[in-house]
Design a protein that fits this description.
- This protein is mainly β.
- The chain has a single domain, classed as YVTN repeat-like/Quinoprotein amine dehydrogenase (Methylamine Dehydrogenase, Chain H, 7 Propeller), CATH 2.130.10.10.
- The protein is built from no helices and 36 strands.
- The strands form 11 sheets. A 4-stranded antiparallel β-sheet has the order 2-35-34-33, with no helix packed on it. Strands 3-4-5-6 form a 4-stranded antiparallel β-sheet, with no helix packed on it.
Length: 450
């Protein structure tokens, strides 16, 4: 069984930037409840990854468990012409050579192939990077691009989604493994950043290169749970769950230099009322500012460890970075413990989920929007609180937009099926019902860099 932090899963957030207006009322619709099928869990269970959407409006994602063998699935949801959605299982993992327990989301290439990771399984039971190719006759073929080794030197337990660069190389992180190990903090290794490069001739093979091995010494971070983001200059940015000066996680940069990569820790979490333990990934605006969430910290309650925060890191003119807490969550305000990263609209509003909430029960969670105000403050709007009826619980993954400005996401629990103790999870959609059009000039524009 794959490792879980806090209430569960986390993944890297896919970003689709669209022009949307604010909204004061939202409608949530459950598109699919997992757990139905001949054996009760055939359709998969516990979807903890962010979704991916193609140009036809089809949704793709993974479930950590369930499926024919119980080790997770890759699924597709297709919208029906008359309304409703049809689920199709593209692959059932068997925790053997093809991997098992996928926690990260998927990425599409221009040919319609899907790429992802599994936290377990494979030739050495250490996780894999896989590709799913659509067949001309229907169905999908899985190909394992890389098996992480049992000695862990090339990484262990890849939990996050992947990203492509401009020439088709894949980049990702592993939570453990690498060449630093042997302590309580990093007994199986402190984690890695890796690159997979395809061959240029003949049958396509992929070669792995470790770009960075994380360490528990020297202020470096360790245990990167989320994926990565590129800036326009080709630098990579990400977060680590632990490590840094205060041992509460970091934001790091990897810069290419002569064929190698140089790591710089941009921020160490845990000082004063700062956030702690970032699990979600980052987004980047054209000015080079980074935005993300922390699972803990922020200065309010939750057993003294803080309920989590949304932060911004801004580059300083003379070097270095300035950290600013945009919003601190509180158990009294109704939602806390954000595990996912953020998505933004064209007006600079930020959107994500919290895994906990009190509106309809402790494990409900919610979808929130943060809106920038004049003077630098931010205000939170709750778009939906989970846990009422069969609408899902525990949204541990982030959100995506479609071209119409509707939000889509998953919940790891809840839904209509009782095949799982707490429900097998859902895919949901949130539509704005009462548009409140605001002048673009009244909001700061924050558009992610591809």
């Amino acid at each position: 069984m794959t490792n879980r932090l806090s209430s569960g899963l986390s993944l890297l957030i896919s970003i689709v930037t669209v022009l949307v207006t604010g909204a004061v009322a939202q409608k949530e619709t459950v598109l699919h409840s997992f757990g139905h099928g001949k054996d009760g869990r055939e359709s998969g269970s516990a979807p903890g990854s962010c979704l991916t959407i193609d140009g036809y409006g089809n949704l793709y994602g993974t479930t950590e468990m369930g499926g024919s063998h119980g080790y997770g699935t890759v699924f597709e949801l297709q919208p029906k012409s008359g309304g409703g959605w049809t689920e199709k299982i593209l692959h059932n993992f068997n925790n053997d050579a093809d991997g098992g327990y996928p926690l990260g989301g998927l990425v599409l290439d221009s040919a319609g192939n899907l790429y992802g990771t599994t936290g377990g399984g494979g030739a050495s039971m250490a996780g894999v990077v896989f590709e799913l190719q659509p067949k001309a006759s229907g169905g999908w073929t899985e190909k394992v691009l890389h098996n992480f080794s049992d000695n862990g030197k090339d990484g262990l337990e890849p939990y996050a989604s992947l990203i492509f660069d401009a020439v088709g190389d894949l980049y990702g992180t592993t939570y453990a493994g690498g060449n630093v190990r042997g302590t309580a903090d990093c007994f199986t290794g402190c984690g890695t950043v890796f690159e997979l490069t395809p061959s240029l001739a003949g049958e396509k093979h992929w070669t792995e290169k470790i770009l960075h091995n994380f360490s528990y010494v020297g202020g470096d971070g360790f245990n990167p749970y989320a994926g990565l983001v590129f800036d326009s200059a080709g630098n990579l940015y990400g977060t680590t769950y632990g490590g840094g000066i205060f041992r509460a996680g970091t934001v790091f940069e990897l810069a290419p230099s002569g064929g190698d990569w140089t790591e710089t820790v941009l921020h160490s979490f845990g000082h004063d009322k700062d956030g702690t333990s970032p699990i979600g990934g980052l987004i980047l605006d054209p000015s080079g500012n980074l935005y993300g969430t922390t699972l803990g910290g922020g200065g309010y309650g939750c057993g003294g460890g803080g309920c989590g925060s949304v932060f911004e890191l801004s580059p300083e003119t003379g070097g270095g970075w300035t950290d600013k807490i945009l919003y601190s969550f509180s158990s009294k305000s109704g939602g806390y413990f954000p595990e996912a990263g953020l998505v933004t609209d064209a007006f600079g509003n930020l959107y994500s989920t919290t895994t906990r909430g009190v509106a309809y029960g402790f494990n409900g969670g919610r979808v929130f929007e943060l809106t920038p105000l004049a003077g630098g403050a931010w205000t939170e709007t709750v778009l939906h609180s989970f846990g009422k009826g069969n609408d899902g619980k525990a949204p541990v993954s982030g959100l995506i937009f479609d071209a119409s400005g509707d939000l889509y996401g998953t919940t790891a629990e809840g839904g209509g099926s009782r095949s799982c103790k707490y429900g097998c999870g859902t895919v949901f959609k949130i539509m704005p019902q009462t548009p409140l059009t605001l002048s673009p000039s009244s909001r700061r524009r924050v558009v992610p860099v591809p």
